[in-house]
Amino acid sequence: SRVKEAEFVKSSARARDCPKDDRPEFAVLGRSNVGKSSLINALIRRKEAALTSKKPGKTQTINHFLVNKSWYLVDLPGYGMYHNDKIIDGIANGEKQSEKYNFALVFIGLFAAASQSARTDWSSFTKGYFLNRDTLVGVLLLVDASIPPQKIDIDCANWLGRNNIGLTYVFTKCDKSKKGKGGRPEENIKEFQETISSLYPEPPPWIMTSSVTGLGRDGLLLHMSQLRNY
Ligand code: GTP
Ligand code: MG
């Protein structure tokens, strides 16, 4: 499961532009700012292969990274962020808020960066990507362990589960710990697990990671190699 080499292959604006290839791939999914691009950089040990930012909405296209010339890691734009219990579009920085949403909106938020006119395309594409990308071996659903469970992540897990898309929970930012309620990663992870335990007959695999300390890196690579050979 070692990474010997990794190369950026391409950025795609739409599903149909993704590489036509038989090699297996893992999609890295999660809220804007959860640490998707950072995780990819940690996995392939490159500082800025996938561009990261403090501001949500950095990644705006589908980015394929080829590892060991044999499998892909796919960096995706993030879906919506919560602020004061309201969903904020990942890129709109508070301009666009909506108290009620459904998964369609999550998907629109997922590709928040697409221009307004392209958004309808994006949302249908995204579902299409997850449902039809034959080479998709699994989804790494990234969940920020440094904050309490967020409804949008639970809804996302729910949708993937209902559609039989194999997923692994990757808890990010496990190096961050604050005093007080909701400040400890272990607590937040436990609460998340309890909330989603009723969604699956068998709980999905999960792993604690930190892109800062490298926690979980080798374990996650091993896990993905097992999924590929399954
Ligand atoms: P979008 O592309 O906007 O959807 O965000 P993203 O999910 O790719 O997040 P990104 O990797 O750009 O990271 C967002 C911020 O979180 C950056 O400031 C990172 O340095 C920080 N970050 C990411 N992973 C970790 C982690 O494991 N620990 C800590 N402490 N910070 C992290
Ligand atoms: Mg990103």
From TrEMBL:
<keyword id="KW-0342">GTP-binding</keyword>
<dbReference type="GO" id="GO:0005525">
    <property type="term" value="F:GTP binding"/>
</dbReference>
<keyword id="KW-0547">Nucleotide-binding</keyword>
<keyword id="KW-0479">Metal-binding</keyword>
<dbReference type="GO" id="GO:0046872">
    <property type="term" value="F:metal ion binding"/>
</dbReference>
<feature type="domain" description="EngB-type G">
    <location>
        <begin position="22"/>
        <end position="230"/>
    </location>
</feature>
<keyword id="KW-0460">Magnesium</keyword>
<protein>
    <recommendedName>
        <fullName>EngB-type G domain-containing protein</fullName>
    </recommendedName>
</protein>
